[in-house]
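Quick illustration for those who missed Monday's session on complexes.
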Amino acid sequence: MSLIIGNWKMHGLKDALGEARAISGGAAMLPEDKHQLVICPPYTLLAMMAEALMETNVLIGGQDCHPSPSGAHTGRISAEMVADCGATYCIIGHSECRDELGDDDELLSRKVEGALRAGLVPIFCVGESLEIRETGHAETFVNGQLDVVAKIADRVIVAYEPIWAIGTGKVPTVEDIAAMHAMMRERLGGSTPLLYGGSVKPGNAAEILAVENVNGALVGGASLKAEDFLGIAQAAS
Ligand code: PEP
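Prediction with phosphoenolpyruvate bound:
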């Protein structure tokens, strides 16, 4: 079973629900036991999308959460609120949040706990910068990021997303993806679904999803169009 998760980031007004419906319509034609499709829309669409997709086999996720269940945190959203909208999953530690919100390991650990407390499955993102990749320390760096979830590895999904591959059209070699995923499998054990993310498209998905220890994909840009997102799901064997 491949997990194909779409991260819509800060894209989509109400009319984008039509695209979500097109995704769920296409997903109904795919063999049920081979894929689980998930869309993580902006918070503003979470409840509406969960309702629109209620009777379908596409699930919904948040893109981040505050560690506290409620409180004086203007502009923030708790994991309980994400779950209350009808979500099953929550992305935590995306490189854009690490960069823009300054999420560090301590805060990320509390966010993961918050997601679990609310009954959500955390999709914990890790990945190195180009500079770290070029100096040959990518695996050591990512291994360090895994400290946040290593003790609860059976309760999370981990997505390896090299920062330099996100939204750039650049993709690591299948050998590099295989080496990183082998390290993560060794560290986390057999029960953690491991996703690859970074410029996954219908044209490269089959090759990436065939790599050992790659159990699915976290997809940004190509998840916004039903045709592309479904094309990636179809490529999953
Ligand atoms: C992402 O941001 O999670 C991502 C993988 O983006 P893209 O597919 O656009 O590289």
